[in-house]
Amino acid sequence: MGLMTGKRGIIFGLANDKSIAWGIAQQLRGAGAELAFTYLNEALEKRVRPLAESLDSNIILPCDVQDEEQMVAVFDTLKQQWGQIDFVVHAVAFANREDLKKPFSETRLDGFQLALDVSAYSLISMTRCALPVLKEGGSIVTMTYLGAVRSVPQYNVMGVAKAALEASVRYLAAELGEKGIRVNAVSAGPIKTLAASGISNFKEKLRVAEERAPLGRLVSQNEVGKATLYLVSDLASGVTGEIHYVDGGFSTAAG
């Protein structure tokens, strides 16, 4: 019997085996959870489906988080097949590559709206769609980054989006606490992912984080997965509205 045996939930944001979402999925499945997954488009489905199936998932659905009708359809499917779910993992973020390269003051409205919509507002709409099928005592966890609270070079509009995401976590936690639903975020250190490839000088950020972290190393996908496992499990039954840092101590050592 694992920590998550008998628990069911869905992961949004798996793109490939380098994704933070993949580390989370492996940890949750290893603890006994039954998982569902979404993919953005046909190109990503070719990567996501084999990974999901390797973890015994048979619910793999299309979903663009900017399209609430698709989101509703995802949770309708979960209701039909499972009745209720225990957790939702939101590992979704996006900003135009050019908005991560040029000076922040040159961010245009359309790029700003896109980053905030995909990276922050989607948590709100996802929560709204999930509530009819999320059990009392359920958990919602999202992924954030240090750029939400500090100015990180070339993180730009994504830092603003992550700040909005973290504020949303606190407001959702305050609202949903009376329903027994917890909402938290994991702030991961820099990890080589598909999304991170769009950030300029990312290798330099990895080097600095490794040098300054008290642990003297970068964290892994699986370590982020373990933190997420804790937050969605009953071990964290009294934890909500928290930003849980998993970055080798870099956030406290960065100054």
Task: Write a brief structural summary.
With 255 residues, this protein is α/β, with parallel strands linked by helices. Helix content is 43%, strand content 16%.
Give an overview in words:
- By secondary structure, the protein is α/β, with parallel strands linked by helices.
- The radius of gyration is 17 Å and the shape is globular.
- The protein has 8 helices and 7 strands.
* Overall shape: globular
State the secondary-structure class: alpha/beta
The number of helical runs is 8
* Strand count: 7
Query: Order of strands side by side in the largest beta sheet?
Result: 3-2-1-4-5-6-7
Average pLDDT taken over every residue: 91
- What is the helix content? 40-55%
Percent of sequence in beta strands: 15-25%
The ordered string of helix (H) and strand (E) elements is EHEHEHEHEHEHHEH
Distance from first to last alpha carbon: 43 Å
Describe the largest sheet. Answer: 7 strands, parallel
- The whole-angstrom Rg is 17 Å
Q: Which stretches of 5+ consecutive residues score pLDDT under 50?
A: none
